[in-house]
Amino acid sequence: MPNHFHDLGGALEWRARGETVRVEPWGPDSVRVRATPGGPLLDGLPGALLERPPAEAVVKIEGATATLVNGALTVRIDGNALDATDPQLHPAAGRITFLRTADGGELLAEEPHHFWWPGPRLYTATGNGHHRLEQRFRAYPGERLYGLGQHTHGMLDQKGAVLDLVQRNGEVTIPFLLSDRGYGLLWNNPAIGRVELAETGTRWVADSARQLDYWVTAGAPAEVLRRYADATGHAPVLPEWATGFWQCKLRYRTQAELLEVAREYRRRGLPLSVIVSDFFHWTHLGDWRFDPAEWPDPAAMNAELEELGIKLMVSVWPSVSPLSENYHELLNEGLLINTEYGPVAHADWPDKGLDAYSAQVAFYDATNPDARSFVWDRIRRNYHELGIKVFWLDACEPELKPGYPANLRYHAGPGLEVGNLYPRENARMIHEGLTAAGESEIVTLNRSSWAGAQRYGAALWSGDIGTDFASLRTQIKAGLNVAVSGIPWWTTDIGGFHGGDPDDPAYREVLIRWFQYGTFCPLLRLHGFRGPEQKLEPAMTGLPNEVWSYGEEAYGILAEHLRLRERLRPYLMRQMETAAEQGLPPMRPLFVEFPDDPAAWRVDDAFLLGPDLLVAPVTEAGARERDVRLPAGADWTDAWTGERHRGGRTVRADAPLERIPLFLRDGADLPVRG
C-alpha cells in the first residue's frame, strides 16, 4: 500500500485522492490544520493567525497512522481507517483526532459526514478555484462551548446554537470556541458561512473559499486564552484615561452643546474621561471633517476639553456619499468596495442637503492598504492635527442595506471569501495611522470586530440594543463570550440604545441597574437614543442622557458609582496589564478562574472582574435581592457587609436599588466601600 504520510521536518502532511492535509505546530500546545481538495496548499490567504511561532514537534509515522506531538497536544491522522493492507481508501481516511498528550484522552475528533461519503471534510466547487467548505467534528454529550464573538441569542454556553458567520449590527463574528473539554478552536477563515453546534455533530461552513484552515490548542481556559493571544496578537495595555467614564448620547448637535455638558460634569465634581461627538457632525458622509456651521472651532473645543482632562472621541464612518468631496477620487482610484454586478452603492443613508431622499452610499475598502492610507490622510488633516486621537468606528460591519456580501468585491478577495475581515482592517487603518504619527496610546471603539482586532487597540461595544431588563440580561452573556473570544476591551450602551424615557420610573430602574453593571465592565460608557423614535436625518437628536437626567434618586446612585469606579481604577489597570501580557480578559466567566468547579461553567448571570471581585448584576424589575453562586476553591466576603462565605454554595445577597452584590475572593482588599 502507498504511504500517504510525509514528515516535513516537524510538520505532518497526508496526501491522497488529490487532497492535501497539513498539520503544523503553531505555538506551544497548538497546531494549525490546512486542507485543500487539489493542488498545493496556499500561503498568504486572509486569516487571523500571526506568523508561525517557534515550537518543537515530534512526528511519528507507523503504518496507516501518524502522530504529531506538540507539548500537551497530540494529533493523530488515521491514514486508512478501513484496512491498512487495502489499497482502496476508506472515506474516513485522513481523519484527524486531537488528544491530550499526558493520558491519550480525546479532546476533539473530526467526524465523517457519512459512513461511506463524504468524509469529515467536504469541498463543493463554486467556481474559479473556490469551494463551499464544510468541516465536521464529533459531538460530545454534555460539552459546553463558549466564545464566537457577540450574539443576542441570550446564551453563554452556545451548545445547540446555529450561528451565521457574518457581521451585522449587534451580531459580531469572531470564530473562536473554548470548550470545557480542554481545548480551543479558531476557524481561521473570514468567509461568510455558519457554525452548527448540534447534538449530532459540530459543523463549520464557509460559503465560498479556497482552503480549509483551523487552529487548535489544548489546556485549561486560562492557558487556552494565553495561547490564543500568542497566536492572533496581544492587545496593548489600555491607556489609564480609558478606564474612566465615557459620556455619550445621540447626539450633541453643536460644539456649544457638547462643551456645556463637559463643563457641567466639572462643575458638579464628577469624573469624566471621554466625551463623544457622534454622527452627522460632518459636512457629508465620507468628508471626514467637522461641519463648520455647527462646530466652528473644533481645535479650541478640543483644547478646552484637554484642559479639563477630557478626551474628545469622534465618530468615523466608512461610508462615502456621492456628495462627498472624496467620492470621485476614491472611485477613480479603485479604493471603494466594488461589486460583482451594479454600481458601487451598498446602502441608503441620509446626508446633508438631501431633505427628501437618502444617498446611495459606498464604503471605502479597508482591506486595501492604499484605501486605508487615503482615509487616514483625511482623518489626520481634519481631526488628528486638531489634537483628536480617539475614534469611534461606527457601522463598520460594514452596514449593508441590503445585505448581499456575495455581490461585494474587496481588494482582499470576493465578498463571500473575506467579508468578515472588514471591521478588523478598519481598526487597523486607525492603528497604522496613529502609529505612523508617533502615537503610542491607541484606542478605537468599534461596532463590529474579527479575530486579531485586539492587536490594533480595538474595543468593541454591543451595537444598537434594546432598553429593557431582557436586553441587559442578554448583554451580560454576550460580553462574557466576547471576553473569551480574545477581545479584552468591551462595553455596552448603558441603558440600551433604542428608546428609554428619562422621566419614566420603570426605565430609571433599568438605567440604574445597567449603570451598576457597567461600572464593572472593562469600559464604562453611557450612551443611547432616548425618547420616542425620530426620523433618521441629519437634524435628529435624542433627549438628555447625562447622569443628572434621570431624577435626584438616580443621580445620587449613579454619581456614587462613578466614584466607586474611580476607586477601582488602579485595580482595573492591573487587569488591563494582565490582558496585554497574558491574554486574560479583565471581565471573566467564573470558569476561567475556577475550571475545576462544575457549577462555575453554568453561571451566566455573574462574572469576575480580574481574579478577586465577583460581580452579580441585578436584572429583574423590582428585585431587591438575588441568589449568587460562589465558586468552590475560595472563600468569599460580601464587599458591603463583611460577611464571609465558603465557596461552593449559593447565597442570598441583599440588593437594594442603590447597590449591586459584590464579593471579594480570599480576603482581597479592594476599596469598594471607600
Automatic annotation (TrEMBL):
Superkingdom of source: Bacteria
Keyword set includes Ribonucleoprotein: no
Residue ranges of every copy of the Glycoside hydrolase family 31 N-terminal domain listed in the record: 21-192
InterPro entries, A to Z: Gal_mutarotase_sf_dom, GH, Glyco_hydro_31_C, Glyco_hydro_31_N_dom, Glyco_hydro_31_TIM, Glyco_hydro_b, Glycosyl_Hydrolase_31
A molecular function GO annotation: hydrolase activity
All residue ranges annotated as the Glycosyl hydrolase family 31 C-terminal domain in the record: 583-668
Keyword annotations of the record: Glycosidase, Hydrolase
Keyword 4Fe-4S included in the entry's annotation: no
Similarity-based family: Belongs to the glycosyl hydrolase 31 family.
Stored PANTHER family: HYDROLASE, PUTATIVE (AFU_ORTHOLOGUE AFUA_1G03140)-RELATED (PTHR43863), MALTASE-GLUCOAMYLASE (PTHR43863:SF2)
Stated name of the protein: Glycoside hydrolase family 31 protein
Species this protein is from: Kitasatospora herbaricolor
